[in-house]
Automatic annotation (TrEMBL), chain A:
Domain ABC transmembrane type-1: from-to ranges: 112-321
Gene source species: Paracoccus methylarcula
Locations listed in the record: Cell membrane
Example GO BP: transmembrane transport
Protein name as catalogued: ABC transporter permease
UniProtKB/TrEMBL annotation, chain B:
Protein's UniProt name: ABC transporter permease
InterPro entries: BP-dependent_transpt_permease, MetI-like, MetI-like_sf, OppC_N
Domain ABC transmembrane type-1: 118-317
Keyword Ligase: no
Compartments, as annotated in UniProt: Cell membrane
Membrane topology: Multi-pass membrane protein
Family under the similarity heading: Belongs to the binding-protein-dependent transport system permease family.
Listed transmembrane segments: 59-79, 120-146, 158-177, 183-203, 245-274, 294-317
Ranges of Low complexity composition bias in the record: 19-28
Coiled coil: none
GO cellular component: plasma membrane
UniProt cross-references to Pfam families, sorted A to Z: BPD_transp_1 (PF00528), OppC_N (PF12911)
Length: 335, 331
């Protein structure tokens, strides 16, 4: 197991390096100019100076290696400095955004909480809805509950989040006026009332994402439960006189959760990607909104870093899913 | 790394089984003598069709999907208003006889725009699916059939799976829209860009499924027989391997249409899809969001069309999978 983990981690490094190179070259091949927004009255010599100041004058491979160094060496050093009060990163250049001229990671750190509260909350809610539904509809296969559950999850799966979000806004934000349609990120929770305001504004984005996730996970849960309900050990458990509740909720559920847990882990990075759309619908200024605005502004370091962070998330969670599978299921042997 | 691949194959199998769960329990017992049963000739496709018909949800979905297809293809012949015709005096009308679904903020007829938008959306879905399936089955068959190609091609697939797709799609579409629309015209350039971007980023699942099937197929006797009479690899693949992996490819293709339509409308919704005067369902939705408080129907109609089409396609894919895979029938 340990061997397998080490091998996978080592293999993940070249994968990530390659992905970063792909993203970098894609950005490099693009015709966009980071100085496109600079007024035409600025003389060409000054523009050339600005280009130099942004580090654009050098050939691409040097800039790529420089970015790698900044990402993997300077940034960790900077954060350890912040934590421990040391001075390792003094005089080193951090990854700087073209747009705001401030370090990319500071901007990202400002945006992460918004995304994490909405996305994380919705994923938890989604899983909590999905698992009971999956259990029930597998246990009562072909009952009306199962039929409706399957249909609803199919619909939830097929409705794009931008549509469900907009419909919710029209119904609950505009017609009924229950919830605010725009997410206010400057809102701070201080007391009970402001906490309620926060809950009210989170309900709609969380519902949209949670429904979408629940639709997918409940289908996995149902299939996995069905697989296990037909196994011999279930018959044995029943035959030796165990109560139905114990059979289903202890024996079957535990075994059925193994694949579902890995699916949940695999789905997390995709949820971050999907949140780009939901953030746009509800005007949450999280990571997705940051990505879109920096794509529009040709802010190459920001786009590169953000996309690469998404890639790291995907690779990490795939790894976690693989390892979890091996840990949870003793039948799986990697060595 | 075969362990990971085995596990990934198990994952795909779970995925297949998981979606098959929606099937109704309708497996009939096989006839005692299949050769003479029924009296009519039995081909595989007739069997598949018979099985497909018994899946009620899939049949309803098929009828609805054909309806949507007719709406966008034949509709413009019957409803001849130009979707781009601006009638500023008739803007923002509700449901009237002249404009059954109302008009938008420039007085363009919504019914005509929905038809035109659907044409583009479905065309994008179909073309992107064709590209993805072509790439996926080529890579899947090659890596399953030729042992030497297996490792590098599967590494490539894993690499693509690790790419953050939506951010990359956004990136590709924003960065390359200008040069492409200059060389192919605004509409065609964006169409090519979106279709190839979606196609190039969604072939991985089908490649894996096809590879798994080809690997299993290679152990079968008929392949050995064909090989022993000296069939060259090219004919081997085209005559013996491909027809036998056609059913997973078809299921993947159906589901691919749904994903492509959703991705295109998501791009349009983020304002990075087709140009404004070129309606697609996602674009119509995006344009209407600004005034959704006043004219909610303009948001809901394209959204309903997107969801309905995707739902139908998903159900058809479900039914196809049930009909084509006898092992999971009736689950």
């Amino acid at each position: 197991m340990l061997n397998f983990t080490i091998r996978r981690v080592l293999l993940a490094i070249p994968t990530l390096l390659f992905i970063s190179l792909v993203i970098f070259l894609l950005l490099e091949a693009s015709p966009g100019d980071p100085l496109g927004d600079v007024p035409l009255t600025v003389p060409p010599e000054v523009k050339e100076k600005m280009r130099e100041a942004l580090g654009l004058g050098r050939p691409w491979f040097i800039r790529y290696v420089l970015w790698l160094k900044q990402f993997f060496w300077v940034e960790p050093l900077y954060w350890t400095d912040q934590l421990l009060g040391t001075y390792f990163s003094d005089g080193m250049q951090r990854v700087i955004s073209f747009q705001s001229r401030s370090p990319v990671f500071d901007v990202i750190a400002q945006r992460v909480p918004q995304t994490l509260t909405v996305v994380g909350m919705s994923y938890i809610v989604g899983v909590m809805i999905a698992i009971p539904i999956g259990i029930l509809s597998a246990y009562k296969q072909y009952s009306w509950f199962d039929q409706i559950g399957t249909f609803v999850s199919m619909v939830g799966f097929s409705m794009p989040t931008f549509f469900t979000g907009v419909v919710l806004i029209i119904i609950f934000g505009v017609k009924l006026q229950w919830f605010p349609s725009v997410y206010d990120t400057t809102h701070e929770v201080q007391d009970w009332d402001s906490f309620l305001v926060q809950v009210r504004q989170m309900i709609m984005p969380v519902t949209v994402l949670a429904l979408y996730n629940a639709a997918q996970i409940s289908r996995f849960m149902r299939a996995s439960m069905l697989d296990n309900l037909g196994q011999d050990y279930v018959r044995t458990a029943r035959a030796k006189g165990l109560g139905e509740r114990k059979v289903v909720l202890k024996h079957v559920l535990r075994n059925s959760l193994i694949p579902v847990v890995t699916v949940i882990a695999l789905g997390l990075p995709t949820v971050f990607g999907g949140a780009i759309i939901t953030e746009q619908v509800f005007k949450v200024n999280g990571l997705g909104q940051l990505l879109i605005s920096s794509i529009h502004a040709n802010d190459i370091p920001m786009v590169l870093t953000l996309t690469f962070i998404f890639a790291i998330l995907i690779v990490t969670f795939t790894l976690i899913a693989d390892i979890l599978y091996g840990v949870l299921d003793p039948r799986i042997r990697y060595d | 790394m075969t362990e990971t691949e085995r596990q990934q194959r198990m994952n795909t199998e779970e995925l297949i089984e998981e979606t098959a769960g929606a099937a109704a329990a309708t497996s009939a017992l096989p006839p005692d003598e299949p050769q003479v049963a029924g009296g009519e000739t039995r081909s595989q496709w007739r069997d598949v069709w018979r099985q497909f018909r018994s899946h009620r949800g899939a049949m309803v979905a098929l009828v609805l999907f054909v309806g949507v297809l007719l709406f966008v293809s034949v509709g413009p012949w019957l409803w001849t208003i130009d979707p781009g015709y601006v009638d500023i005096r008739a803007r923002n009308t509700g449901f009237t006889a002249a404009h059954p679904l109302g008009t938008d903020q420039l007085g363009r007829d919504m019914l005509a725009r929905l038809m035109a938008g659907g044409r583009v959306s479905i065309a994008v879905g179909l073309t992107a699916m064709l590209i993805a399936i072509f790439l996926g089955s080529t890579i899947g068959v090659l890596s399953g059939y030729f042992r030497r190609l297996d490792a590098p091609l599967m590494r490539l697939t894993e690499l693509f799976l690790a790419l953050p797709l939506l951010p990359l799609l956004l990136l590709m579409v924003t960065l390359f829209r200008e040069p492409l629309s200059q060389s192919f015209g605004p509409a065609m350039g964006i169409f090519l860009l979106i279709v190839s971007a979606i196609g190039a980023t969604s072939w991985m699942q089908s490649a894996r499924i096809v590879r798994g099937d080809v690997l299993g197929l290679k152990e079968r006797e008929f392949i050995l027989a064909a090989k022993s009479i000296g069939t060259p690899p090219r004919r081997m693949i085209l005559r013996h391997v491909l027809p036998n992996v056609l059913s997973p490819i078809m299921v993947a293709a159906t589901l691919g249409i749904a994903t492509a339509i959703i991705t295109e409308s998501a791009l349009s919704f983020l304002g990075l899809g087709f140009p404004p005067d070129f309606p697609t369902w996602g674009r119509l939705l995006f344009d209407a969001v600004d005034q959704m408080a006043l004219y909610p129907s303009r948001v809901i109609l394209p959204g309903v069309f997107i969801s309905l089409t995707v739902l139908c396609v998903n159900y058809i894919g479900d039914g196809l999978r049930d009909a084509m895979d006898p092992r999971i029938r009736g689950r």
